[in-house]
Amino acid sequence: MSTDTGMKRRGARTAPTVVVIEHHTLARTAIVRFLENELTGWNIVDMACTESLEGAQLQDVRLIALDLACKSVGCPSVHEDLTRIAQLFPNAPIALLSNTDDIPMASQALRMGVKGFFTTTLPIEIAIAGLRLVLAGGVFCPHPFGELIEVSREPPKPADEERPITSARMQYLSIADFTPREADVLAQLQSGCSNKVIAGKLNLSGHTVKMHLQHIMRKLQVQNRTEVVARLGHQLSNGHDIAAE
Fold first, then answer.
1. pLDDT tens, 206-220?
2. Class for domain 7-178, per CATH?
3. Beta-carbon neighbour count of residue 44 at 10 Å?
4. Residue 109: which of 134, 136, 135 has the closest Cα?
5. Is residue 100 classed as helix, strand or coil in its secondary structure?
6. Is a pLDDT exceeding 60 seen at residue 101?
7. Dihedral of the CA atoms 76, 77, 79, 80 (nearest 10)?
8. Alpha-carbon torsion (177, 180, 185, 191), positive or negative
9. CA atoms in the 13 A half-sphere facing the CB of 84
10. Closest residue by Cα to residue 34 from 51, 47, 46, 16
11. Residues of CATH 3.40.50.2300 domain(s) within the chain?
């Protein structure tokens, strides 16, 4: 099936999958090649619109990236797309691709439950780190710390509206420091795996896993693995502490 009208699969069906929804063929192809380079062994599925999403339901979808196509987050068609994604893949995080650095739009997207807001002005190393953070269960917003401080000076909002921006601000300060292997460990940690299980899945020694976890905790300025997952906006399903592994 042509990627202009439908969906194209790359990789094995059982591999973890990222779905890219982008109307423009050139942009979609560039994004796919970027992801294939960064996510070796992953399955990349690309399509021109959300109407083709049903074809990806048999995949192990870990992330859905939707291009806003110059639309605002509040646009009815964007709302329809997000609703369709949530219905078909309720457990898959959504990342939005935008051609604008509009801070209120990013804030609105985070309040709607979007886990990543990527713009065309992002440096490639930040985009890579942000991608890995979202795949590890975190939230990514690209705006520099200073700009987010300015947003925080606006009239107070209800507490449930403030949390996403605060979380995104803290994430931004640390995401660029995560190595690819640390991001892999984070993803397993978010799934509730013990150190022993993480070591087996990633083909690492127990000592190496502990070392990566210690680096992650230092970068996030937390004391244990439970706080790591809490910082990323999720609750740990396996309450083991590093010292017990």
1. 889 998 888 888 877
2. alpha beta
3. 20
4. 134
5. coil
6. yes
7. 120
8. positive
9. 16
10. 46
11. 7-178
User: Would you tell me the crossing angle of helices 195-202 and 206-220 to the nearest 10 degrees?
Assistant: 110
Amino acid found at 209: V
Regarding the domain delimited by 181-244, which CATH topology (the fold level of the hierarchy) does it fall under?
Arc Repressor Mutant, subunit A (1.10.10)
Q: What is the per-residue pLDDT across 109-137, written as a single tens digit (0 to 9) for each?
A: 888 889 999 988 888 877 887 888 888 87
**Strand ranges in 51-170 using DSSP code E only, listed in sequence order:** 60-67, 94-98, 116-119
- Three-state secondary-structure class, residue 128: helix
- Centroid of chain to Cα 12: 21
Q: What is the pLDDT of residue 244?
A: 40
Residue range(s) of every CATH 1.10.10.10 domain in the chain: 181-244
- Residue 22 is predicted with a pLDDT of 95
pTM over cut 0.70 = no
Gyration radius of the chain over CA positions: 18
pLDDT of amino acid 42: 93
Provide the edge-to-edge strand list for the sheet that holds 7-8.
7-8, 43-47, 16-21, 60-67, 94-98, 116-119
Choose the weakest-confidence range: 138-142, 167-171, 173-177, 186-190.
167-171
Sort strands 116-119 and 94-98 into parallel, antiparallel or unpaired.
parallel
The amino acid occupying position 7 is M
Q: Are 110 and 165 in contact (CB under 8 A)?
A: yes
